[in-house]
């Protein structure tokens, strides 16, 4: 996208968000989405919204409701729309009078003649199917005990899939709710219930009116959930989970991290938690990791249910996600963006604050190291793609709300906030955040409001910083340029280069430059200097006369957001001396430099794998080991996708890698964390007959690895791996495991183990189910099949349907919608790591003009990554 268009779009957006006059369109577009223009026109007319909601849930496929909206209207001369998706509307009354229903399955239109200037009341009675795709009011039947569970998910704009609403963030409202449910159900919402009336087979739950919230932050969850309670924090805490999975929940960990987080954020923000109680719910079929509903946070079961004792990595993930969602209770729920272009700031801030809280309030003091090797690297990858974008981008309608929700939104945004905290100073940054939250509590705010609060605290104009970091895409590269004479540094310049000619922005940033010397004991830090740089070159006179280093790292401790290009001497030192680097954060960054060189087709992949074989088994830092073994799995994926051209090398190196991981698993007996990390690596590498036989023997109990608990989760991973490579008898093992574990998690695992089988008939059957948009299969199973249908090594099978998938891509994209396509386009676009495959995708790009923005992005990424794979392969086989 050219810069002129982006600038024009941003100017239009900012004009709208600053409240400049916007003429209402003649009529709202007849589709499922709300445009920013229509939302702005509506919020200019409507204020002081209150909802009175009444629901009846029976456990069946449909639910019924009655919603009364009361609101002030300053202009009654035009019709007003109220969002409601795919419902059967029974009646509409306006200001006490029943009126004809004008409803198109997306919104109800209230005629101007029925409205008055001032206070209005609209009551809509309706019924609707429960959702089964994770949005709106989702319903799930537990296959273990046939109990029915429901929960809501409204982000980005799905509240109107449950009740009539002004479903836009800048029309905050209050919510009073009554819910009639089966007698054995419990209900959680934003407030604690004020009464429960026993009606025999049903009970009626009443909840008092909430404080002002955007519609996507309100929620209601109901079902026969198991409930744990804890009163050890300042605010009462509860945890909910399905009865059949309750044994997999460790409530003591949940309550510990929640208690630590609430205390941390109360103190950090200087503003007490505003929503009185803190519920957290583990829910099935969830689309995302978690959701920050005010006082009733939902979490995906798949990420947080474990049939074995949690590892340190799993506990850290739990703590981090709890903290992320908790930060939203202030930043997102209490103070909310005006429109969906501000969603990045919500997520970036929560990612930054969630990591800070994890590092400072829990036992996971190395949380920033995990952020560096996980989220931040994903941001660097995303920022170097052809689809990179500014952090702040226009969002024309709710159809586009998630188009740019990615690692740039979460992790680059969080990195810029981390950098800004270093630039301004920790206490100034905290004071600016406090002032912002106090000033805009229960209101909507814009980016300028947030940056303005920070700038006021710092007594500095941050408009230039904002332009550089938030409105310009791309990642800069920094490099140390120095010379030595007589063992001392003669001159030292920190050089900054732009992302490309098309993205020429150079940025201001504060980093630490660290100098290291090789000693018999290892690599020792000889000097560390904090520097604020800007422009193409910054001379660092303070380093003149320092001892000439063996290695220079110009972003020590990861203050900055920049790719680091090591000078030749430093790169050679890093490659040869990784095991001699005592600091795990620096070691992680040096490993990353090697991997960056592989992805740039500068360092041959086999050189990287030699470094892994030489250094990984001795790694003693648990977080860093996870980073290295993750890169190892990515390296194997490259080798698999490269096909027969690298068969000889792959056949030589894979047994070495497999047995390195297996022996390390055995050697880690007594340390559950390291053993499970190494065994997971072995499992993710296993593809030779010998390694698969080892897995089969471990599954059957014929072979026992001391210390390893082969629980149900691990059993399914092994069964899936054996089916992936058609190990003899694997299908029978799958059938036996389905009998052993009939749970919904087991059913999902069985879908993966079936779809992944290297069998053309299986692929055809599952592709047909995926393309059947009327299927009765839960979307969670369809999504699982997509993710497992064509693993990298099954290139020949994938090619059999590649032409069909590309030919029908536009049709599927148009019919299926964004939730479906986010998985489909990322999993099922055919790549083969060949020039012909690259050319095939280029042809589709040249000839296709009708794809949605999200699917087009996925297509562009697939094309670029296919090119990258070809380049890495060419470097390997030279």
TrEMBL record:
Residues 258-469 form the Peptidase M1 membrane alanine aminopeptidase domain. SUPFAM superfamilies: Leukotriene A4 hydrolase N-terminal domain, Metalloproteases ('zincins'), catalytic domain. Residues 51-216 form the Aminopeptidase N-like N-terminal domain. InterPro entries: Aminopeptidase_N-like_N, Aminopeptidase_N-like_N_sf, ERAP1-like_C_dom, Pept_M1_aminopeptidase, Peptidase_M1, Peptidase_M1_aminopeptidases, Peptidase_M1_dom, Peptidase_M4/M1_CTD_sf. GO terms for cellular component: cytoplasm; extracellular space; membrane. Its cofactor is Zn(2+). GO terms for biological process: peptide catabolic process; proteolysis. Residues 1-23 form the signal peptide. It holds the Pfam family ERAP1_C. Keywords: Aminopeptidase, Hydrolase, Metal-binding, Metalloprotease, Protease, Signal, Zinc. The keyword Disulfide bond does not apply. It catalyses: Release of an N-terminal amino acid, Xaa-|-Yaa- from a peptide, amide or arylamide. Xaa is preferably Ala, but may be most amino acids including Pro (slow action). When a terminal hydrophobic residue is followed by a prolyl residue, the two may be released as an intact Xaa-Pro dipeptide. Transmembrane segments: none annotated. Residues 551-859 form the ERAP1-like C-terminal domain. Its EC number is 3.4.11.2. Belongs to the peptidase M1 family. NCBIfam families: pepN_strep_liv (TIGR02412). This is Aminopeptidase N. It comes from Duganella fentianensis.
